Amino acid sequence: MSSCRISTAAARLRLAALCGSSLGLAVLPAFAPAALAQDQGWAGGDDIVVTARKTSERLQDVPISVNAVSADQLRDRGAVDVKDVLRVVPGFSFSGVERGLGNYNIRGVSTVASSPTVGIYLDDISLVTIATTFSGAFDPVFFDVERLEVLKGPQGTLYGGSSMGGAIKYVSAKPDLTRIGGSTAAGLAFTAHGDPSYTAEGVINLPIVEDHLAIRGGLFYRHDGGYIDNVAGLDVQNSNYSSAASPDYVPLAQPSLSTRDKDDQNSANTYVGRLSLLWQPDPSWSITPALFYQDYRLRNPSQFFVNTPDLTSSYRLAQPTKDQAGIYSINVEKELPGVRLTSLTAYFDRKLRYERDYSFFIGGLVPPLFALDSYNLSLSRTKTFSQELRIASDTGPGARFTWVAGLFYSHQKDNLYQIVTTPGATPVIGTETGYLGDTTTVTDQYAAFGEANYEVIDGLTLTAGVRLFQIKQELDLLGDGPFNGGLTVVEDRRSNEKGVNPKLGVSYEVDRDHLVYASAAKGFRPGGPNRFKINEELCSADLSRLGLSSAPDAFESDNLWSYELGTKNQFAGNKVMLNGALFYTDWKKIQQQINLTNCGFAFTGNAGSAEIKGAEIEARFNLSDAFHVGGTATYTDAKIVSAAPGTAAQDGDTVQAVPKWMLSAYAAETLPVADRWELQLRAEYQYQGRARRQFGQVQAVTFSDGVAGTVPNLAEFRESYQVVNAFASLGDGDTTVRLYVNNLFDVSPFIDTDLGAGSDRSTTIRPRTVGVEVRRQF
User: Fold this and answer.
1) Where does the pLDDT of residue 300 fall: very low under 50, low under 70, confident under 90, or very high at 90 and above?
2) Whole-model pTM?
3) Residue 415: CB partners within 8 Å, gap ≥ 6?
4) If DSSP codes are grouped into helix, strand and coil, which group holds residue 723?
């Protein structure tokens, strides 16, 4: 073993091919930086190899907070997308339950503004798009992936693009040059109070020229059964009005006038295709073109009325969503003496069609229009070209100085077209088109980045990194209609921001099982123009409450410094794992969406400054070779310390969508059954603490006698909730049968409650779902 002694974690990976299992690592195939060690599965996957720092490293050796969930762990949970696993990742939470409309936050760096704080990547390709009421984070489904990585803390050095809070990284399975193989799977699930769900998929890997050329492809289909019923003739409640005279407050309820009866209306279908090619002309080259296409079709949103029984609504019109995205890339790697060159070229094309029933919203703004049907159509199209060039040093045995440097460019064109029509409204507002908006935003990003590690003495490594960037934005806007305040034209509104994101770190590897690290990093997010023209007359009450006469045309950039002290440890021959971290973030000029609840509009403003203090811990105990327990705990105190004028935030308010406490726990056991067959059992407990939904302790109300006033904002907070899941897996290595129960006790917390758009409504997590999947590998 002494001949295999090496001093750095990076060098250990390169030597793993020579020393093999004596280092406890997988042997990495040539030019497979995303190669994954055999997952320890139910034991926690301690030898997963991750690429969080754009080089291959054992998870426990990475001196930053990273969580990785393997493909098997995703399957065991019956996970479809990232929302199904985030409650077991310390410090990771979200708002928005719909796929493609969500908003993620890590360690309290949360926002519902147009620029996300968490970057989303598929194989190092940025999937970040502008977020609006009609578009959120793109969510690839889990299909033919090796793992999911969640990087915490600012990732502005190596990743940039909206990664000031962290990054979510999907790592795809790669073609294998040496063997024919693949898998097929089919699943069926039943949801309480809803329709069944079912899924089917197939993946095949074919070497075309052994050791030189291989192709991998697959198809995936999933039907998610609905669980929200639309019932004709129910009452719709509008908390912005009172049916009683001042000062008595009784939320206004009136017949919805809906004639639609539709059971389980929020069903969805997802179609996915993946294709990738790996060509190695010789051992020094790796050329990988890849294609990913996803078509997601939701029949109706998962919103229910808060004033009606169970999970029901009473909308008048169908409200489908169609989210289509294609990701096309080519990754080229060339190994030269002492360095490795990488070129990643990608094109991301996303189309989102969003149709909604605006009858209650328009009827709330103009009561004489309540009896008429109002229809909203929003079309979003985002096209992004990106190019990254990297050069990295050799990380071979004995290398004390390692580095990576690169250049990045992206060009993104985003268009949002929205039209709201109310047939029959002309006698009241002079037109049937109440609002028309057409906004195009063009964003160019340029960056040069680098990160270096120097091992001063055995085990003690210093890290320094920097990203220099420039972001140029150009906006053109056309708005019209009475709800826009007439015709508005904005041409060639530009912004140009430059910035520097530095990073410093130090780590000490006591031995292979114990690592201590500290880091300081800066995150930055550009400002920009507001994409809507706010009708000052229609929104005068809301604006006045904020001390404004008009909404701002633009918002400023925000930035933060984050500091972390952490440790990663394994004891008793890997029978105990204990990782922990303390973090502090100083966040200036926070970008937040300011909701004008009485008129239904919103704008992005700078809500002030915040301090985030927190701690997280992750533990696993192997009580025997077959029985394991573990869990996570995260405490986050994220508060506004200097609220800005013109927003509803106040000093001492918690940052939106950030629970103070997040907890999870699990117990798992593996039992031999017969021959090669094993039964694996696992149960999980998850807790999300109370979190702020909106700034503002009060909401504006109009009483039946015409008096304007305020009442407590019942949507200010999302209450805490708990979820229990259970899984069982029976397999022999080739065939696996999985049984899972998600949301065992059928809890239905209110996640995204909205009392400001003419109908009081909310969303929840999927009710209790029992599913089975059969998978065969060949």
Assistant:
1) very high
2) 0.89
3) 379, 380, 381, 382, 438, 439, 440, 441
4) strand
